[in-house]
Design brief:
Helices cover 21% and strands 46% of the residues. The radius of gyration is 23 Å and the shape is globular.
Length: 252
């Protein structure tokens, strides 16, 4: 491993400013990176969770390619009641050869997340989000909230024409999205029920066929129009029965 590559990895950590790193015992540690000098990174971490000699690992995009960065905590000193000043030494930087077990497809549909076991979210708290891509194994969802963390467990619910996506999930990664004050969460489904898996497969098949993946309309509107299918033909009789002033709203 060349010094230049290790320095590149250290600089990439600093560019992140705040990053969730996996510990050697399987935990997740939020590290705030400040500056780098060669392979050494000056940073800050939760005082009670970090210790000298701890191995830390994370995944970062460098030059459009995902890399796995490994480091060790060389020094950890008390900085405040909650934070410790730490020095990380980058020990390895390598291309991440791991591939997703299932291919993800781009979508755009609203969903609701409900906190279950989270670091900074109260159990039962709801977050509105937008699913950006999905597969049989998980989703990427953007939320206008900076509190979710890797390792959090939540429940996602979204309605599509094929059925309902309703399952517990775990946040695998959390990074800043394109919108200020928002995060893009990479999430893995936890024991999805067979009915939901079937719904996902039908939805993914429709996307593969080139059709858009859209959220199902509000159930109350469909029931009020007595529409029980998805075709436009079934909707026309109900729309004709509406007063003219309501037709535009109903067909929007």
């Amino acid at each position: 491993m060349t010094d230049e590559l290790l320095s590149l990895g250290a600089g990439a950590l600093v560019d992140e400013s705040a990053i969730d790193m996996t510990t050697d015992d399987g935990g997740v540690l939020e590290v705030w990176t400040i500056s780098s000098n060669g392979a050494a990174v000056r940073a800050s971490a939760p005082r009670l969770d970090v210790r000298e000699g701890m191995q830390l690992e994370c995944r970062i995009i460098i030059g459009s390619f995902p890399h796995r960065i490994q480091s060790v905590v060389e020094q950890a000193e008390v900085q405040s009641q909650s934070r410790a000043s730490v020095t990380l030494r980058v020990t390895d930087v390598a291309l991440d050869g791991k591939r997703r077990r299932s291919h993800r497809r781009a979508v755009s549909m609203p969903a609701t997340l409900t906190a279950l076991v989270c670091d900074r979210l109260v159990p039962g708290e709801h977050l509105s989000g937008m699913i950006n891509d999905l597969s049989e194994g998980g989703i990427a969802i953007s939320v206008p909230d900076l509190r979710p963390r890797a390792g959090d467990r939540l429940r996602v619910r979204a309605r599509v024409f094929e059925g309902t996506i309703d399952c517990e999930l775990r946040i695998v990664s959390a990074r800043a999205s394109d919108s200020a004050g928002s995060l893009l969460l990479g999430c893995a489904f936890l024991e999805p029920p067979a009915e939901m898996v079937a719904t996902l497969r039908r939805l993914l098949e429709r996307i593969e066929a080139g059709e858009p993946a859209l959220a199902a309309p509000d159930r109350g509107v469909r029931e009020s129009l007595r529409i029980h299918g998805d075709s436009v033909a079934e909707a026309r009789p109900a729309l004709r029965a509406l007063p003219l002033r309501n037709r535009g709203l109903a067909s929007a």
